[in-house]
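Example record used in the benchmark description.
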Amino acid sequence: MEILPLKKKKRLFRFYRALKNTKNSTLREISRGLFKKMIEEVYEKTKMAIKEFKNNPVHNLAILLPVFMSLFMLICGAVLYITFIAKGGYPAQIQSFRDNGWWEGAKAGFSAGRLGELYNGIFGKIVGYMVVTNIVIIMINYFKVNGKVKRILMIIDYVAIALVIVSFLMFLFQMGIYYDRNYITDERFFVVFGIAVKYTIARNIFLATALGSIGGFILLPLITKACRWMVGYMGLGVLTSFALIPLFFWVLQNILPLLGSVAFIALIIVGIWIMVRIMSALGTDHPEDIEFKQIELKKARERANDYRASADGYFKSANEGLNILTSAEDKRKIGRDELKKASAEDKYAKKLQEDIDRLKNKFDK
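Model output (structure tokens):
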């Protein structure tokens, strides 16, 4: 027998250890690697876009705008979070626990702070302007890379969008004159839109034109390879700016109420589990159970006897029968299975007998 050198043994041992740890760490490493790769890719693209900005401003702006809007929202969220801390956000949540108790304190302690400004305030408006600028950049690139057919289709789509907007504004103007100038407010915008859709004679044409023009406005850049990545990049920037970053800071601001809610729910679950265990330990025995278990005991013994008789029949047939349709070995196998069933019934009958004896002692019968 060949003996492996020490170096080869160490190499094989390291390989085995790495293979063993792979199963537990594969998913973690993959997710970590993908996230790291994504961050590195965004960083490299951003650095290259800044460096080569003059050579292709449209292409590079499509990269930089989503990054800038995400960074802007991140900085604004950090500023609002610091403001939340400076104004006593966490002490106020702790005081809410003291004043209202655990659960009510957790509910009362939830706070959006000033995060609403990320959407409705000046910060949200600035990012909104960035999104509009990004859309303009994508449209410029669309007309730059496409031929006449796609350009004409987009121009037709612009005309359709303009007609929809003008028609809707005319309707709003007429509604404002008919009722009063203050009728059309921000709060009633969608109500008025619903009325327009419901009662306008040409509602089907209006809706078809509106949906078709919006669909074309989205679809045409998506079917253009040079614009598709720009749309995806912008979508990622919008998702990060208006969803992920606000959610991150909301969790930070409400970490105490969240932990309080989780702890309260966990205590309820543990309490229910303890009660179930106590009830199971105490049991719910009744005197009537004796008669029921005696009947069940009789049936279990009868089933065990039937299985034994069946097994004896199969063994006898295997030894003395012709064994034409079923072989002797198959018959013996069936007989052994019948004996296993009889043994299970005997165990069940034994348990029933123990329960009957326990109940008789408990209720002095």
